[in-house]
């Protein structure tokens, strides 16, 4: 039996993959390099390409090819690839091209303006652009909802974490809300008896950059297939063959940039280790945003805050920043595990981080569902920050709803993935420890290969071969179980 | 009378303009940023886009639209735009899409390998890739020749300098060959009596970079619409709204990078000053490669080697590199006008530069016409370098035929433009002096506005409004006249 239709589908996907390569690099450049006056032309160029890719993903022949391929004699891998092609087709065909182009333009404009509005704390300027972004996101949610039968917010979330529903998020976040406040209280109480020396600034940007490069090397990043640059909001972009990570530097503190870089390195290695022989086809893609975040959190939290990690980091820190009492191993470990409620999600420790995510989830869901408007965000933000972390954020938009790029870039339904990722990561490391009982000693000795090999074979190389629940079960031996996250936090912070 | 067809053509050109924006930025990135392992995927992505742009430029409907638009009631500007659309259509339709894609892939591969082969003096490795590039360039020349009725080499050259023929190049270069060797001899004789202090290295890269930025500012570059980065071979890329210039640094000498940067700034300002209200349409484009080079040489040679320019440069040099005896104004001027036969075209002074171009022209023309093969290049190169500049280049491929990116990138018929550009520039400055008799005093006083305003109104803002001979006549009051170039060299170097 021939595979004509399947082969034709593969050729079309490879073509889209190649064209989207240019979109990815130009998007990275827009954040990392582009001067101000280039933005209008870049936004128009990216929108044109977004429209073209959408057009290619919705060509009339595709439906027939997908139906024909389903009747062909495919092996298991080809069948999984076809399943992902079908999923991509459903997602693309839910949206009219005019909406795709309008979204690209509005998101790009909002995000670009945000780069100067955030430092100026200019909420009213920002909200003018955000209103249009939200309007289009609601329209998108309606379109996706009509096709999938899901509720509007669930339909958006399903793009990033296929199969996840807000009912399930409610259950998991409900579980968290039960024990998290008490755990934060206990940890703060325990840590209040510890003495922690703050590193004494300044830390020159060039030295931090060199330190970041060494840390990426320690974490196995392949610099022949990627770069580290700077942007207002750190991200991991580019393409699997050429991963473009970004960070930002503050002269008064080096840890946020360093640990942010280690975080993005987790994303970067996932991309760098997707199977080369599948690249260009949907089956090669990273499985989901939650899984992606599980890899960055494996690097930043499971490894980065591991009691043995300070000993690995110390020589690099001393090499680039010189020595000082704060860099003593015990103190470095206390710095890396310090819990302190704060304004900024990306700077948050792993104990308070879930609170930031719950807050965003509780705002973006009613925002998409039309129960609130963009003007209502600040008051809700202030109330929830007070309630969850006891912080006063009134009037501080820069460190409040303007701190993240997501909403301005039209990403709604994405935030829950961060905390799902933290749970996956804890579950994966629990599985590793069952298989390799001396894992913690190995990590402390700088032998990170056991961790990387496990992640490579169980997660990175699997791409989108399995749907998320199956991938998690195959990798860790059981379905998603939030108990591992709680056990991890208790052992590390109260053990 | 409606302009339906003309409007439809404009919309199609704007779409191509936006998509080619992504190609330009990704190409720049390939030279300035990309790590080694990214090359295969990037080459495939650029080839895919090259093929797509070619497909859009050759769509069946275009011929009918072009014919219909010719019957519509267009004003003079629209008619000039239509003329350029027709020219673009003829050029695009001469080549089958498979050839366009093969060329893109072969050129990209050859150029990438060249980046490591050149430092290794690896001619035999380079020639393996170059052979395929030449094979495809000959095929291209045959296709273009069939459409235009021009000889194969003329057909290639016509893409870069429309209307220029090798008979005319023979005439101009024949004129040069008459007086250039004697002039070089006289200048070397005169300069042998001068004392010139060499700047004492080292010159830190960061200081040179800052100096280059200041020089670009002096020359009016808009940093909100462009950048300066590094690449193996300096070039000016990007898009008019976001010009991406590159340079390279040597710690033992700062002048090659500085003057190269000033050169590229001339290209950059031409692009930055193309008419905004025409952008996206062919009429907005820079007129030709020879005209483009006339702008870079106006900056690098007409201004950069002007007797008053050393006084403008000195404060910048001293600010970034500290002072030393070599930076005294008179000595700096002698350095900037020093004539010395050398291996490297891009480092050549303006007196010996034409010899480098004649040499390349005399090799690439028979190469395209099939009278010689790539294996014959080194022997011809060695013989002509000896004959024209008295230099022995045997075995030194890095500083010989591997010094330029052009041939590896498939650019044949381009080299003559450099010397045509030098002649245009000399003619333009002669015209400026007739209109502004105190021009030289203004330049010496740092008042460069007269020069920039003249170039902006006569050249930059005109885009492709006129064909080259008409643009030159309108700008300077007469047709191309090589006597201005000779007079310029005699006045500056023997005056
Ligand atoms: Zn992340
Ligand atoms: Zn040039």
UniProtKB/TrEMBL annotation, chains A, B:
InterPro entries per UniProt: Peptidase_M32_Taq
Gene3D superfamilies noted in UniProt: 1.10.1370.30
Q: Please verify whether the record's keywords include Nucleotide-binding.
A: no
Any GO molecular function: carboxypeptidase activity
Top-level taxon of origin: Bacteria
As its record notes, the protein acts as a catalyst of: Release of a C-terminal amino acid with broad specificity, except for -Pro
Q: What is its EC number?
A: 3.4.17.19
Q: Does the keyword Metal-binding apply?
A: yes
One family from Pfam that matches here is Peptidase_M32
Give UniProt keywords alphabetically: Carboxypeptidase, Hydrolase, Metal-binding, Metalloprotease, Protease
What is its biological role? Broad specificity carboxypetidase that releases amino acids sequentially from the C-terminus, including neutral, aromatic, polar and basic residues.
Q: Which family does it belong to?
A: Belongs to the peptidase M32 family.
Name recorded for this polypeptide: Metal-dependent carboxypeptidase
